[in-house]
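Please fill in the sequence for the structure shown.

STRUCTURE ENCODING:
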């Protein structure tokens, strides 16, 4: 296989947004460094979206709603500056491209279908004569995960994209090239997700909930082991760029602050409950399933990191979810438990 195969097929899209863990860049750098053991990924184009926040600032922050207080706004500003610097040096050096130049442009993105409100996107393109190895997109207002992905789609030039969240890291080698080749030769596959701790042995435990067909696929059906997945998880996955453009973002599901799994994902789940495997075929979502689903491929970064406080003293902070926050204010990376029998969602 030619060395240029994977970069010509796959673009990495990473979303990041305000977090209590900023200004540390540890989340973002850990996620990207976890990709490097996988062959050729460091040579793929990378698009990073920095979500904005709403103004004026508030005394009581709510991250899901894009509402920040003064301290969070300051630490996020520092984080964005430091993350861009790291990306422009470290990732560019992994990419091994020379003679690159910066191009800065302002774009306008529509917030939602039929809405007149727009958001300005400041785009920094690190370009070379061959391609654009690094695109940095900074929104001037709060978009949320779904609209951040939709904004990034305008810059994706490859038939497949790997969507990454800033606090989900890979913990096992991923045969990305084999997955892409499997998707190429089997057009029914539009999405391949990866096993996180809560969906270990998914096909046996969670893939056969009330009203759902079997997730199990014969292990020799595809080049890589796969199971049928009945829910569109936002956490790290590989997807068809065309499917994102022509199916996910054409139904008007999303408003500012939405997650794809909270909207499209539940529409999919309800549809498959009603139509079974025929319904699943319309979505084409699968799960990379080594060793019968026992291999954990993803980890929510949920430990402790050391950083300096305002007085310059070292302190430890939790990298995981702030226990004081409710589900409605969760970070994009927080893994939710799906109620497979919840029929509240309608088509």
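FILLED IN BY: designer on duty
SEQUENCE:
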């Amino acid at each position: 296989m030619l060395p240029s195969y994977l970069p010509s097929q796959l673009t990495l899209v990473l979303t990041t947004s305000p977090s209590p863990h900023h200004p540390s860049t540890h989340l973002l750098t850990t996620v990207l460094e976890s990709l490097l053991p996988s062959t050729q990924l460091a040579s793929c184009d990378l698009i990073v979206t920095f979500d904005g926040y709403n103004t004026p600032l508030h005394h009581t922050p709510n991250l899901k709603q894009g509402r920040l207080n003064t301290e969070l706004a300051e630490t996020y500003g520092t984080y964005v500056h430091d993350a861009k610097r790291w990306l422009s040096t470290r990732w560019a050096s992994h990419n091994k491209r020379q003679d690159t130049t910066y191009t800065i442009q302002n774009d306008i993105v529509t917030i939602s279908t039929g809405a007149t409100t727009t958001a300005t996107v400041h785009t920094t393109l690190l370009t070379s004569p061959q391609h654009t190895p690094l695109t940095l997109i900074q929104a001037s207002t709060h978009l949320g995960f779904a609209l951040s992905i939709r904004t990034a789609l305008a810059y994706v030039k490859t038939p497949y994209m790997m969507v990454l969240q800033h606090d989900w890291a890979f913990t096992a080698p991923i045969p990305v090239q084999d997955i892409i080749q499997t998707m190429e030769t089997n057009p029914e596959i539009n999405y391949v997700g990866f096993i996180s701790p809560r969906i270990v042995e998914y096909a046996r435990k969670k893939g056969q909930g009330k009203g759902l067909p079997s997730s199990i696929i014969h292990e020799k059906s595809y080049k890589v082991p796969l199971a049928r997945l009945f829910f569109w998880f936002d956490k790290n996955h590989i997807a068809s760029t065309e499917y994102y453009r022509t199916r996910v973002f054409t139904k008007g599901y999303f408003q500012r602050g939405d997650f794809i799994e909270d909207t499209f994902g539940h529409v999919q789940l309800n549809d498959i409950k009603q139509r079974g495997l025929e319904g699943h075929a319309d979505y084409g979502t699968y799960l990379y399933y080594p060793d019968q689903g026992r291999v954990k491929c993803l980890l929510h970064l949920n430990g402790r990191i050391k950083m300096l406080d305002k007085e310059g003293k070292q302190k430890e902070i939790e990298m995981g979810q702030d226990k004081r926050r409710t589900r409605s204010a969760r970070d994009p990376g927080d893994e939710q438990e799906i109620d497979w029998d919840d029929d509240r969602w309608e088509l």
